[in-house]
Write a structure and sequence with these properties.
The protein is mainly α and 358 residues long. It has one domain. Helices cover 64% and strands 1% of the residues. It is built from 17 helices and 2 strands. It has a two-stranded parallel sheet. α3 packs antiparallel against α4 and α8 crosses α16. The longest helix has 27 residues. The N and C termini lie far apart (46 Å). InterPro entries: FA_desaturase_dom (IPR005804), Fatty_acid_desaturase (IPR012171). This is Acyl-CoA desaturase. Keywords: Membrane, Transmembrane, Transmembrane helix.
């Protein structure tokens, strides 16, 4: 896949103008892929995922066991915070399952993905798969990537100029509202999952809906049977809000504030993935908390690569990008949030300017 034009990529930490297509531009990824394959980094890791899935299931079961054992007490808010963290880890496992990092076969991936997603945390595996597949195909493309659609936040100055409704109301001060808005992300995942059941394009709607209903029924029954109404509502609020914040903080560093594309801007596959992604530096704790998504560049280039191989792949990919002259962006976690928030504030300027003028 080659660059169709000298399209300007804007709205990143530094504006990038990809070079005009070269005769060998389409083979850049093929050469990188060969190096990755020869290093054995695409091989499955059944042992790793057996341990990881077992630990996540055990911690989830342990959290709900502690919930029942504690009974009607305000100490349950600590359990709510713990389960918010574990729900986030379940979501990260569902992400790996969706990318077939765990199982080679689609059927096995879908079965376990629905168990972890729909039944485990109340998030539709089918809805998320559809949305995430479109994101991976065209990351940060304003018309093609659903993750940068101007529904609540605006991601470019052009979106800000054309914004309306809630996006326009929030857009001028969205950088300050970003983290508070993340407290609603957990609720949004449940609502979006339920709404997706009415879409004709959703596959296995009956199964998806049944598992979602079982999760919601079991979740609310547990809360209101074990806790008094006030404590149940408090538990729900703390749990879902912290779950949303954790998920948002996991995904926000990946692309927010990186270059965006519009219209016919389509660099080749390697540049499309690398230029729009940001890596987050850190040690094993960062790998654990972000589920390997801190290696976002490598993940986008090789979505089916098992998580434990991403750290080794980074060395290969970064050196290769330097070799062929493709910018490779990585930073610390706090700097990634700073870049994302700075970008959100900057692109909201047209809304603030229009308000001052009116």
């Amino acid at each position: 896949m080659t660059i169709s034009s000298e399209a300007t990529v804007t709205n990143g930490p530094a504006a990038v103008r990809p070079s005009r297509s070269r005769p060998d531009a389409g083979s850049d990824f093929a050469r990188l892929s060969q190096r990755i394959t020869e290093a054995g980094l695409l091989r499955r890791r059944p042992g790793y995922y057996t341990v990881r899935l077992g630990l996540v299931i055990g911690l989830l079961a342990g959290g709900w066991t502690a919930f029942v054992a504690l009974g009607d007490t305000w100490w349950q808010l600590a359990v709510a915070a713990f389960l918010a963290l574990i729900f986030g880890q379940v979501a990260l496992v569902a992400h790996d399952l969706a990318h077939r990092q765990v199982f080679r076969k689609r059927r096995a991936s879908a079965i376990w993905g629905r168990l972890f997603g729909n039944l485990g945390i109340g998030m539709s595996y089918g809805w998320w798969m559809n949305k995430h597949t479109r994101h991976h195909a065209n990351p940060n493309h304003e018309e093609l990537d659903p993750d940068v659609a101007p529904d609540i936040l605006v991601w470019s100055t052009e979106q800000a100029r054309n914004s309306s409704g809630l996006a326009r109301f929030i857009g001028g001060h969205q950088a300050f509202l970003f983290f508070p808005l993340l407290t609603l992300e957990g609720f949004n995942l449940h609502v979006a999952s339920a709404r997706a059941l009415s879409s004709p394009s959703m596959k296995n709607r009956l199964l998806e809906g049944t598992l979602l209903f079982l999760h919601i029924a079991a979740y609310l029954s547990a809360l209101f049977l074990v806790l008094s109404p006030g404590k149940a509502v408090a538990f729900l609020a703390v749990h879902q809000c912290l779950f949303g914040v954790y998920l948002g903080c996991t995904f926000a560093p990946n692309h927010k504030g990186m270059p965006t594309f519009t219209g016919e801007d389509r660099p080749d596959f390697l540049r499309r993935q690398v230029l729009t992604s940001r890596n987050v530096r850190g040690g094993r704790f960062t790998d654990l908390m972000l589920g390997g998504l801190n290696y976002q560049i490598e993940h986008h280039l090789f979505p089916s690569m098992p998580t434990p191989h991403l750290r080794r792949a980074q060395v290969v990919v970064r050196a290769y990008c330097t070799e062929i002259g493709v910018p490779y962006h990585e930073t610390r976690i706090l700097q990634s949030y700073r870049e994302a928030l700075t970008h959100l504030h900057r692109v909201g300027e047209p809304i603030r300017r229009q308000r001052k003028a009116s």
